[in-house]
Write a structure and sequence with these properties.
- The protein has 5 helices and no strands.
- By secondary structure, the chain is an all-alpha fold.
- It has one domain: Cytochrome c-like domain (Cytochrome Bc1 Complex, Chain D, domain 2).
- Helix 2 packs across helix 5 and helix 3 packs across helix 4.
- The longest helix has 18 residues.
């Protein structure tokens, strides 16, 4: 008896959905932001595409979080309008998730 191909597809979609069902909402939002915004300067997998922008992969989460909060809150010596705009509307949980994600990647 042959197994219908469409059942394999449905089963595969079910497994994929189950794998992401427990994902932290802040992490899911962070991944959307990364794929839509961050990669344009900081590169795929946090490895910068140009020298003027830092690679984020493997940086300490606390450092990344502090830098993003400084840009967002405009309360320090970080005066780069592009980054201020990028993180300006992010909440603390999303910033923490972004920092955690990038810190989990291997350094270039």
């Amino acid at each position: 008896m042959k197994f219908p191909a469409y059942l394999l597809i449905v089963f595969g979609l079910f497994l994929n959905a189950a794998a992401f069902a427990d994902e932290d909402p802040a992490l899911a939002k962070a991944k959307t932001i990364i794929n839509g915004t961050c990669v344009s300067c900081h590169g795929i997998d946090g490895v910068s595409i140009a020298e003027q922008w830092p690679s984020l992969a493997g940086q300490k989460a606390a450092y990344l979080e502090k830098q993003m909060l400084t840009f967002r809150d405009r309360n320090g010596n970080r005066d780069y309008q592009v980054m201020m705009n990028m993180v300006g509307g992010l909440d603390d949980a999303t910033i923490k998730a972004l920092a955690k994600y990038y810190s989990s990647l291997p350094q270039p």
